[in-house]
Description:
There is one protein chain. This protein is α+β, with helices and mostly antiparallel strands and 296 residues long. The chain has five helices and 24 strands. The protein starts with a strand and ends with a strand. The model is unreliable at 1-9, 20-32 and 136-143 (pLDDT under 50).
Amino acid sequence: MAIYKNGKKIENIYVGGKKVSKIYHAGGVIYSSGPKIVDFATGTDDEIAAMLDAHYAGALNIANYWHVGDTRVVHINATNSGTINHVEQKMTMVIMDFNHDDLTTSINGKTKAAVTVGFREAMGNRRTAENEYYEGKFYDYIYDDNNYSVYSLRTWLNSGLLNALPSTFSSLVKEVNKKNLAYHTKTDNAPLITQDKIWLLSYPEVHGTEPVSFYLNGNSPSDYEGTQYEYMKTVSNRLKYVNYDGTASSTRDYYWLRSPSSISARYGFYWCYINDNGIATSANASTAGLAPAFCL
C-alpha cells in the first residue's frame, strides 16, 4: 500500500532521523510510528530530540506530554570570549510556554516554536571560595547604550552561550523573531525585530501588560516586546536565586531584561531588571544576574 501525505507519495518515513516502517493515523494525516514518549526531565537527549522532531512533523503535540514548569538539568561548558566569560556549571531549564514565540523560518508549515524554556536560576560567572556557589554577576559591558540589538552581550548569548550548551540541545535551539524597543521609550515608535536563538526576557514577557512609570513612560506595554509567558503569570516564578550547580541557593539575585527604561532620557543608559523580590524596576546597568531564554 502506498502512503501519501498532502497528496504526495512518501517513499521513506523518518522519525528522529531514523527510518521506520510502521504507520499510524493522526489528525487526518498519515505519519510514521511515533517516538518513545518521555518526560522532559528524565528523557535522554536523543529521546527529547525525537519528540520535538515528531512535533514539528505534525505527529504529536508536545504540549500534551510536557507541561509549563517542567524542568531539566543541563551541563554548560565554560566560555571565554575575552570580554564575556562564565564558568562551567549545571543549570536547570524550566518550560515557560508552548507555541508562544514566532519562528524566523517556519518548519513544515508551523510558525510557532514548540517550547520556550528559560533558566530557572540566575547564571553565574564565578565561584566563591567561601561558600562554593556561583555568583550571578555580570558587569557594565552588558549595556553600554540603549540598543540591545548591537550589544556584545547579545552576540555572546547567540554564539558563546549557545555553543556552551550540550551539543544535542544546541542543535535543537530554534531561531525566533524578538521585538526590541531599542532606543525607544514611547509607544509611537515601532519595535525593532531581531532574530535570536538565545535572548534576555523583556518587561512584558515577565510582567505582562502592567504599566509602570519607567517603562514606555507609563503606557501599557501591549505587545511591543512580546507577551507574557505562562510560567511568569505565577508571581513566585519571577524570582531568581543564585545558581548552585543546577539547584537554587538560598540567595536571591537580580536579573537584567532587554527592555530599555524611560528614565534613560533623564539619567543616561537605564534598563529594566527584576529585583530580588521579583518586582520590575530600572537602573543604570551595573551588576545583576542573567536568566536567558531560548526555544526548542
